[in-house]
Amino acid sequence: MSDGTFPAAWMLRLQEQRSGLGAPGALLDTPFHPTIFCTHPAWSLTAAAGVYANELSETDEPLLHPGSPPTMSIRTSSSLLLVSRLLVAKLMRLYDYPHPSKPGVVIRGYDRAHAMRTAMMCTAVAERLGHPADRLVDYQVTCLLHDVSRAGLDRRLFGKIWSWAKAHGVPTRPREWRAKYPATPYGRETEAFVSRYGSELEAAGIPMTAWAKEQIEIRLGHARRLRRRLAIVKPAVRRLGLRWASWMSDVMLYYYYPEKLLNAKPWVKQLAEILVACEQLEAYSNRRRGRDYYARMQESFPEAFAYLDRLQTEGLIGKPVMTALRELVAEGKFDAVLEQARGRRLTDAERRYLRGLAQGSAS
Predict the structure, then answer these.
(1) Is 94 exposed, middle or buried (CB count within 10 Å of its CB: 0-12, 13-18, 19+)?
(2) What's the CA gap between 351 and 330, in Å, rounded?
């Protein structure tokens, strides 16, 4: 694809027009381009990659933070976002959630900017590994929606619960919970958490209300919550003229439930590995997530790649995925995405570290 244009993305625009979503003439008049621009102060990705600025409310995480350089660009062999800005905006609204105690009030999706950055990196890694263009469009939709089970996340309450859990050495993921408490019935990790630690949380000033239990389920009951959310999301995705295949939800589940992909086709498992690698790189680079989720004081690329190397050692990420990711990072393809996550320019020391990552790809 020397001109950086995906036939599947072209077909996606055709789908938009047929479903009434695309503007007349958009298919021929506005081709995708291999450049993504982020322009301050509009806080939006524009042209081929963007969501309109008004899609992010003042309480949402901006795609580009105050203090970032006025203009940043990424150039790759293809567009990092294959889905049109109109469809991205509509997909991101699927992260919104009705407030449980305030009728008519919607909780805006917290994870939308994270999902967009993750999706851009995932697509580039999958392309580098040779996945076909039509699959890449479906995969990007998967990655854009990979955190949809977190819709309804109350960042203050969620942060209190899981900061407490981290401080007390309590497992925060289903596979870690089952490793520590193997007697827990499969899929009942949320209930086991509340039973074992609910009184301690109450004593710490965190009442175990139904809403608090939902915040626990967001992490420990990921599969159950995802299933409920997808019952709403999948019909909405199809109404947008997009395809939904069964492997897409399997890819979303992999990080928390790798056992569910033991018999998956190799290409499905590899796409799941890519999502884990890119999501964790973004999360380790994300200033807002670091503050709200992890009580983290600062972000560190060496720590991020040390964690990814650990996941590779554990078998959750394969060597081809890590090699491709390291190469793309070393080539500078993700610098702007990582700067958006950080909310500032990369330092010279950080750039030197990133440029040297390909040297470790053979290890």
Answers:
(1) buried
(2) 9
* Calpha distance 5→78 (Å, rounded): 6
How far is the C-alpha of 327 from the C-alpha of 324, rounded, in Å?
5
Are the C-beta atoms of 188 and 224 separated by less than 8 Å?
A: no
pTM of the model: 0.78
Give burial (CB, 10 Å; 0-12/13-18/19+) of 254: buried
Residue bearing tokens 């298919």 = 27
Which residues fall within 8 angstroms of residue 297, CB to CB, at 6 or more apart? Answer: 290
Query: 328-341: b or e for each residue (b if 16 or more CB lie within 10 Å)?
Result: bbbbbbbbbbbbbb
CB neighbourhood size of 193 (10 A): 25
- DSSP 8-class letter at 75: E
Burial of 143 per CB tally in 10 Å (0-12, 13-18, 19+): buried
Q: Find residue 38's DSSP bridge partners.
A: 45, 72
pLDDT tens, position by position, 190-203:
999 999 999 999 99
How confident is the model over 269-285, as pLDDT tens digits? 999 999 999 999 999 88
Per the rule left: phi > 0, alpha: psi between -120 and 50, beta: everything else, 25 is left
Q: How far apart are CA 261 and CA 338, in angstroms?
A: 29
- Joined tokens for residue 211: 């809403």
Torsion of CA 262, 267, 268, 272, to 10 degrees: 90
- What CA–CA distance (Å, rounded) separates 155 from 360? 36
pLDDT tens-place string over residues 116-131: 999 999 999 999 999 9
Handedness of CA 223, 229, 232, 233 (dihedral sign): negative
